[in-house]
Specification:
The chain is α/β, with parallel strands linked by helices and 400 residues long. It folds into two domains: 148 residues, Aspartate Aminotransferase, domain 1; 223 residues, Aspartate Aminotransferase, domain 2 (3-Layer(aba) Sandwich). Helices cover 39% and strands 12% of the residues. The strands form three sheets. It has a seven-stranded mixed beta sheet, with helices on both faces. A three-stranded antiparallel beta sheet has the order 9-12-11. Strand 6, helix 8 and strand 7 form a beta-alpha-beta unit. Helix 3 runs parallel beside helix 10 and helix 6 runs parallel beside helix 7. It starts with 14 loop residues before the first helix and ends with a helix. The mean pLDDT is 96.
Length: 400
C-alpha cells in the first residue's frame, strides 16, 4: 500500500509469534497440536508477587509513573545489580520499560544513525535485526556454529568490527540456542572489545537465572570493568519470575544513554504499568526461593528433550547450558522425502512438514539466522515434551 512507510519493506514479522499463532489456529480447528514455539515459562507468577500487585491496587498506585520507573523499582534494580553481579549503578542510571523489547528498541532508537553497524552473533533472537533495521542501522551477522557450541569466537568478532560498528549485541544464555558463556569465554570477547573504544555493548541477560549444573553466570562489565562506560546491561522479570504478561524489562548503563532513552520513552509510552512495577519491586526484593526449584524442573526437561532428540534419525542436539531452548540440527534430513511426498530442502520445509504430519509446532532455524536447525522451547510439561519428541522421532523415521 502506497501510504505505508518504506521501512516496512526491511522488516519481517516475528517467526516465533507466527508459529505460535499458526498452532493456535490449528488447535481451534480441532487438530491435536503440541506447540513448542513460545519462549514463555509454564509456571504461574509466584504468590508473593501477585499479592504485591493486589496491595498496590488497594493502595491506589494507579496513576502515571515517572517515565524511567518508580523510585522504588529503580532502587531495587540498582540493588539487584550490586547484589548479584557486583556492579555499581545509581538508581538514576537505571530505566524501566514495557518489557525487554522496549529497552532494546529505545537504546537503538537513541543511538543509531543511517550506516551505523550492529554486530549480532547468529543464531540470534528474531527481534534484534528487525529493531536495528527499524532504527536505521545495519545488522552485521557473525556465525556462532554448532561445532563451536553456538558460541562466538573472538577472531570472528574482531573480523566483524569496522569503523562503522556502533554496537555489539550479546545474549547469554542465548535465545535460541541456550548457549551460555563461561567467564573465560566471555573474557576472550571482552579483550577484543577493549581494543575498539568506539564499539558499545548491549548485553541481554534475560535468562541470567536459568543456567544448569555448575555453570556460573557472568555479565560483560563484571568480567571487564573497563567496558562500564559503554555497556547497557538489560534484564527483566519475564523469564525467571514467570512474569511474561506483566511486561517489565529494565536496564542500567551510562547516564547520558539512560537520559536519551528516557526522552524517547517519554514521547512513546511514558512509564510502564504502575501495578506491574510494584509487582517487579517484590520480584527483585522478595524471596528468590522458587528460582532454584524451577531451574531443577527446567534442567530435567532439558535432559529429557536432548536425550530423545538425539535418538531421532537425522537429528543432532547439543545440551545447552541455559535458557529453556534447544537448537538441534536437522541437516541429516535435508534432501529426504517427508511422509507427504514433499522433499525437505530447508529447515523451514522440515518445520512445516513436521507440523502437517505430526502436529508438533517448532520454529525454523533460518528465522534465527543459522540453519539447518530448529528451536524447541521446553517451557512446558514433561508429558507434553515426551509426546512431542516421540512424534518427532516417528516423523524422522518416516522420512526416506
Amino acid at each position: 500500500m502506497a501510504f505505508l512507510a518504506d521501512i516496512l519493506s526491511r522488516v519481517k514479522p516475528s517467526a516465533t509469534i507466527a508459529v505460535t499463532q499458526k498452532a493456535r489456529e490449528l488447535k481451534a480447528q480441532g487438530r491435536d497440536v503440541i506447540s513448542l514455539g513460545a519462549g514463555e515459562p509454564d509456571f504461574d507468577t509466584p504468590d508473593n508477587i501477585k499479592e504485591a500487585a493486589i496491595d498496590a491496587i488497594k493502595r491506589g498506585e494507579t496513576k502515571y509513573t515517572p517515565i524511567s520507573g518508580i523510585p522504588e523499582l529503580r532502587k531495587a534494580i540498582a540493588d539487584k545489580f550490586k547484589r548479584e553481579n557486583g556492579l555499581d549503578y545509581k538508581p538514576e542510571q537505571t530505566i524501566v520499560g514495557t518489557g525487554g523489547k522496549q529497552i532494546l528498541f529505545n537504546a537503538f532508537m537513541a543511538t543509531l544513525n543511517p550506516g551505523d553497524e550492529v554486530v549480532i552473533p547468529a543464531p540470534y533472537w528474531v527481534s534484534y535485526p528487525e529493531m536495528v533495521a527499524i532504527c536505521g542501522g545495519t545488522p552485521v551477522f557473525v556465525d556462532a556454529t554448532l561445532e563451536d557450541n553456538f558460541k562466538l569466537k573472538p577472531e570472528a568478532l574482531e573480523k566483524a568490527i569496522t569503523p562503522k560498528t556502533k554496537w555489539f549485541v550479546f545474549n547469554s544464555p542465548s535465545n535460541p540456542s541456550g548457549a551460555a558463556y563461561s567467564h573465560d569465554e566471555l573474557k576472550a570477547l571482552t579483550d577484543v572489545l577493549v581494543k575498539h573504544p568506539h564499539v558499545w555493548v548491549l548485553t541481554d541477560d534475560m535468562y541470567e537465572h536459568l543456567t544448569y549444573g555448575d555453570f556460573k553466570f557472568v555479565t560483560p562489565v563484571e568480567v571487564e570493568p573497563a567496558l562500564y562506560d559503554r555497556t547497557l546491561t538489560m534484564n527483566g522479570v519475564s523469564k525467571a519470575y514467570a512474569m511474561t504478561g506483566w511486561r517489565i524489562g529494565y536496564a542500567a548503563g551510562p547516564l547520558p544513554l539512560i537520559k536519551a532513552m528516557d526522552m524517547i520513552q517519554g514521547q512513546q509510552t511514558s512509564g510502564a504499568s504502575s501495578i506491574a512495577q510494584w509487582a517487579a519491586v517484590e520480584a527483585l526484593n522478595g524471596t528468590q526461593d522458587f528460582i532454584p526449584t524451577n531451574k531443577k524442573i527446567f534442567e530435567g526437561r532439558r535432559d529429557l528433550v536432548v536425550s530423545m532428540l538425539n535418538q531421532a534419525k537425522g537429528i543432532s542436539c547439543p545440551a545447552p547450558e541455559g535458557a529453556f531452548y534447544v537448537y538441534p540440527s536437522c541437516a541429516g534430513l535435508i534432501g529426504k522425502t517427508a511422509p507427504s511426498g514433499k522433499v525437505i530442502e530447508t529447515d523451514a520445509d522440515f518445520v512445516s512438514e513436521l507440523l502437517e504430519a505430526e502436529g508438533v509446532a517448532v520454529v525454523q532455524g533460518s528465522a534465527f539466522g543459522l540453519g539447518p536447525n530448529f528451536r524447541i522451547s521446553y517451557a512446558t510439561s514433561e508429558a507434553l515434551l515426551e509426546e512431542a519428541c516421540k512424534r518427532i522421532q516417528r516423523f524422522c523415521a518416516d522420512c526416506r
